[in-house]
Amino acid sequence: MVTAVPKARVGVALLLPQPVATEVDGMRRALGDGALGRIPAHITLVPPVNVRQDRLEDAFARLRDAAAVTRPFRVTLGPPATFHPVNPVVYLAVDGELGALHDLRDRVFREPLARELTWPFVPHVTLADELAPDRIPPALAALADYRVDVSFDRVHLLEEGEGRTWAPTADAPFSAPAVVARGGLPLELSFAQRLDPTAAAWLDDQWHRLDDDFGPGRLPVAVTARRDGRLVGVAVGWVEPAAGMAYVSQLMVDAGERRQGIGSHLLAAFESWAAGRGADAFRVRTAAGDPAERFYRERGWVEELRLPEHRRGDDFVQFRRGSAQSE
How confident is the model over 233-247, as pLDDT tens digits? Predict the structure, then answer.
């Protein structure tokens, strides 16, 4: 008997930034859009497609590769338009740097994210789907003057969950990954706002192997290190610009790839990212006596305080580097 391989229902989109997303959601609410609250305001690049679970990493790789050769671009949303009478949809037209948008769409619309389409690709932001035809003309008239410029610097992979709710599970910024090398072994470092599910599962597995648990952490930035396409390390953390402080939440290198400078590259990349966002001081906590304690000491981090029996009865050390301006 052949066992069916589980599939995920995913799509690729440009999510509208704030405050424009809130403005657009206000118009969606006024028009009674049934998808409000289930799908964030967006420009669809790849409509819903079923991807086998064992091909999701290929989908993430497709997203990263497409974003790596894309540069931030700007478009204008509006005026409103409609696909009626073919479809009773009211949407915001998209204008501006359409060449960049179409190029990005062509790069992501490939296996395993390709699918047959019923209609040709028209970039737009849906305001209301299946709107009563008699409401379409007054809606277009009421919103006729709406125009807004938005810039995009990343693309998102969304996945459908319970209740037909769509949420981003991975993002890829429009920048090429940094390539660093030591001993002739090239290493790619890439940044995102969150770990993609494959990287998150890898990190969870690595912590379980160490029989440790630092909790889920906060993920304003996730730095991933790959070698020949294989994930070999992750650093996650966040920065608090008002305090000038950045925190390393988790840093992990594959057990078989240690002592090659990967951890140093990840830490340096995180520090550089945080410094560019106002941080001049850094903190991290690690188990006392753990190899990580030596790792931070050797890189100029200074012990700030000891935390006896901090977690599961183990002593921890809080390290610091630099001095926040506000302290």
Answer: 999 888 888 888 899
C-alpha closest to that of 319 among 296, 298, 299 = 296
Cis before residue 112, ω within 30 degrees of 0?
A: yes
- At residue 195, does pLDDT exceed 80? no
Q: Coil, strand or helix: which one is 101?
A: helix
Question: What's the distance, CA 162 to chain centroid?
Answer: 21
| CATH number at 178-322 | 3.40.630.30
Residue 207 has pLDDT above 90, yes or no: no
Question: At 196, is the pLDDT very low, low, confident or very high (cuts 50, 70, 90)?
Answer: confident
- Phi, psi dihedrals of residue 88, rounded to the nearest 5°: -80, 60
Residue 232 in contact with residue 252, Cβ under 8 Å? no
Architecture of the domain spanning 7-165: Alpha-Beta Complex (3.90)
Domain with CATH 3.90.1140.10 in the chain: 7-165
Q: How far apart are the C-alpha atoms of 210 and 297, rounded to whole Å?
A: 21
Q: What residue spans in the chain does CATH classification 3.40.630.30 cover?
A: 178-322
